[in-house]
Amino acid sequence: MLAAIAGGALAGGEGPGPVAVDVGHTLDAPGATSARGRSEFEFNRDLSVHVVDALHARGWAVSTINADGRIASLRARPQAAGEAGAAFLLSLHHDSVNAVELRPWTWEGRALDYNDEFAGHSLFVSRDNPDTAMSILCARAIGARLQRMGFEPTHKNGRRRSYADREHAVHHYDGLAVLRHARMPAVLFEAGILKNRDEELLLRDPERQARMADAIATGISACLRNGLPADDEAWADRPDRADPPTP
What pLDDT shows up at residue 47? Predict the structure, then answer.
């Protein structure tokens, strides 16, 4: 499985790539609003610049999707990645919390809301993606590198989404359009929780964004260049998926 990806990425001896980096949400549908009133799309776009730079530094060609926030639809994102011949699709997002868990506060005269209980990143894969095994492997590699660099994951999403890898906060989310319509391995990354007032400030820090991007690019590179799916990852591509492999 990896050989097919790497072979496509290195075809013609032109070097590795491309990797597609998708900027989540749009100008018209900007996603969550942070504790201080900034849109998720703006956070996603800022982080994407650093991720693209970090991937370029490792020799990857990169196709940025939706940098202007005007993409037509959710399906257009994986379609654009496919048209670019991408070996891997990373969709960048920032997380929120359930409405019932929010608390009101006022920031610079604006009535807003927050939740300081949850913080941290998480990752999502779809078992309806045609290469779930490599999707899980790359999500694990990204999560492992982030934790090695001191970033803490959240397990908030484990309340609703089952785990593909609990240690690295990798969840199944089969219905996500950007993942299940992709024809290549795909991962959705939630960089942190915008409603947490302290974490919001960290997520706006360019130096921290660059460090996080470095970890993401390192994980992607390790996965696509050197990784092989473990048995449980390969099992995830079975059509029935009725029972996990026995130990």
Answer: 98
